Recover the amino acids of this structure.
């Protein structure tokens, strides 16, 4: 019985992954589109070719790294206040592909970047 339940939940989890990845996409920019954020609110160029600079993101997210970090305190690790200084957001947050937690070039934090 235990085994059956385990198998069932594994199948459900696998099915869910399949369904979400089969949709148009669920990367950060896709989610922003659902929240009515237009390309040009992140990108300055008419035809985007590179990552938006942090000032674009901060316009909607707290206004400064300091405020952003305040909103993130209380979690096990504050990714917005570190010994690496104020990095470009897109070092970790990607728009159209999987995010990267660059801190783990050196560390082994179990952290999920949205
Ligand atoms: C025009 C406003 C706007 C801009 C510009 C913007 N965002 Fe957002 N962002 C939102 C809204 C609205 C949400 C959803 C509500 C919330 O979580 O605050 C959101 C949510 C998020 C989240 C939480 C994601 C999630 O899935 O829960 C992250 C991370 C994020 N934004 C990062 C960024 C980054 C990085 C940039 C720049 C590349 C950016 N945002 C630019 C409006 C914006
Ligand atoms: C070092 C990697 C890294 C950088 C650089 C970074 N973030 Fe994040 N961000 C994270 C991680 C990790 C989380 C998830 C935090 C958690 O869930 O504990 C996060 C969460 C967020 C969220 C969701 C709300 C929250 O605080 O949990 C927003 C909004 C956000 N980041 C915006 C930004 C913006 C805007 C920038 C640039 C000014 C930025 N981030 C730079 C790693 C980063
Ligand atoms: C939440 C902010 C955000 C929104 C909205 C957004 N992007 Fe992006 N975009 C990014 C980030 C961050 C990168 C850099 C990382 C990456 O390539 O995913 C990027 C990179 C790109 C690139 C360059 C890809 C490369 O190969 O380097 C293109 C092209 C692009 N975006 C097009 C668009 C278009 C078209 C839209 C509207 C449909 C859009 N973006 C909406 C954040 C955003
Ligand atoms: C180039 C390698 C490197 C990168 C990248 C890096 N760190 Fe570190 N980090 C270190 C070293 C070296 C130390 C000091 C030795 C130790 O305590 O492990 C340290 C220490 C720390 C500490 C404990 C000491 C303190 O100052 O509080 C934390 C927490 C930390 N890093 C978080 C981060 C976060 C978050 C990121 C990403 C924004 C990051 N690190 C990126 C190398 C790195």
């Amino acid at each position: 019985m235990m085994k059956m339940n385990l198998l069932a939940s594994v199948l459900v989890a696998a099915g869910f992954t399949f369904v979400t990845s089969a949709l148009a996409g669920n990367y950060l920019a896709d989610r922003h589109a659902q929240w009515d954020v237009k390309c040009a609110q992140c990108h300055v160029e008419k035809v985007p070719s590179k990552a938006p600079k942090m000032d674009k993101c901060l316009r909607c997210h707290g206004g400064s790294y300091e405020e952003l970090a305040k909103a993130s305190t209380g979690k096990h690790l504050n990714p917005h206040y570190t010994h690496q200084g104020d990095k470009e957001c897109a070092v970790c947050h990607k728009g159209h592909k999987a995010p990267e937690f660059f801190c783990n070039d050196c560390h082994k934090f179990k952290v999920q970047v949205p």
Notes: Residues 28-29, 32, 37, 39, 42-43, 48-52, 90, 93-97 surround heme C (ligand 3) (CB under 6 Å). The longest helix spans residues 2-22. Helices lie at 2-22, 28-34, 39-42, 54-60, 65-72.
